[in-house]
Design goal:
This protein is α/β, with parallel strands linked by helices and about 220 residues long. Helix content is about 50%, strand content about 20%. The chain is built from 11 helices and 8 strands. The protein has helices at about 5-20, 25-35, 35-60, 75-80, 85-90, 110-120, 135-140, 150, 155-160, 185-190, 210-220; strands spanning about 60-70, 70-75, 95-105, 130, 165-170, 175-180, 190-195, 200. The strands form 2 sheets. Strands 3-1-4-8-6-5 form a 6-stranded mixed sheet, with helices on both faces. A two-stranded antiparallel sheet has the order 2-7. Strand 5 and strand 6 form a beta hairpin. Helix 4 (about 75-80) runs parallel beside helix 5 (about 85-90). It is elongated. Mean pLDDT is about 85; it is low at about 50-55.
Length: about 220
């Protein structure tokens, strides 16, 4: 009910009013009675659409999460590891996403930088790391680097047999194949501003190692 009228009656009454008005009177009438409602309705509609999009994006499947430590990627490199990787996998952005943290830096003069990274690695935030020697040593020390001797299939193991890098892992000091040296790859030459060695490390939960292995092959296949 609107002012004691049904919606149909209200519409008929408004149509009758408008039919008796001049063009100028219709414009003035609209501005006085309807303009604010139209603006409010438009704002509400925009907010509703934004909310629905935001909710939809929040439910996208995370394909892989990578962290780049003490290593500077150019913009093409960031795209290569994110949007280009989605295209490589032939996955749509509507239902899938790739997360990349390209600016992780740890510094002996900033102990908190180690604390934050340690917390992230302890909670399996990253499926893989691209890092310098300092980041590799830290990951191995925390015992979060996968032993590539146990993870790589025979074909990939043969392909990188001379690129494995061994480090002592955790408190036991057991030596494992903690990383692949990707310094001389086309990926690094094209996308990394390298003044140091660059390594690929698999981290995260063992059930997710296959995600990082796909990324490793993708990087190695770069021409």
């Amino acid at each position: 009910m609107i002012h004691g009228l049904t919606f149909k009656e209200y519409v008929e009454e408004e149509k009758q009013k408008l039919s008796e008005m001049t063009k100028e009177e219709k414009v003035d009438y609209f501005k006085e009675y309807y303009l604010k409602m139209v603006i409010v309705a438009g704002v509400v509609l925009v907010l509703l659409i934004w909310l629905l999009i935001d909710i939809g994006l929040g439910f996208r499947r995370n394909v892989i999460t990578g962290g780049v430590i003490n290593t500077t990627l150019n913009e093409e490199g960031k795209s290569f590891l994110s949007d280009d990787y989605m295209s490589y996998l032939e996955l749509g952005k509507v239902t899938n996403k790739v997360y990349l943290a390209p600016d992780i830096f740890i510094d002996d003069d900033d102990p908190q930088s180690y604390t934050v990274l340690q917390a992230e690695l302890a909670t399996n935030t990253y499926h893989y790391l691209i890092t310098d020697n300092k980041g590799l040593g830290f990951a191995a020390q925390l015992d979060v680097a996968a032993d590539l001797d146990q993870v790589l299939d025979s074909e990939l193991a043969q392909r990188v047999s001379d690129k494995k890098v061994y480090r002592k892992s955790g408190e036991t000091g057991t030596e494992i194949a903690a990383a692949i040296d990707i310094t001389d790859t086309a990926f690094t030459k094209n996308y990394v501003e390298a003044g140091d060695k660059v390594y690929f490390v698999i981290t995260g939960a063992p059930d997710d190692y296959d995600r990082a292995l796909k990324m490793l092959e993708y990087i190695l296949d770069k021409k």
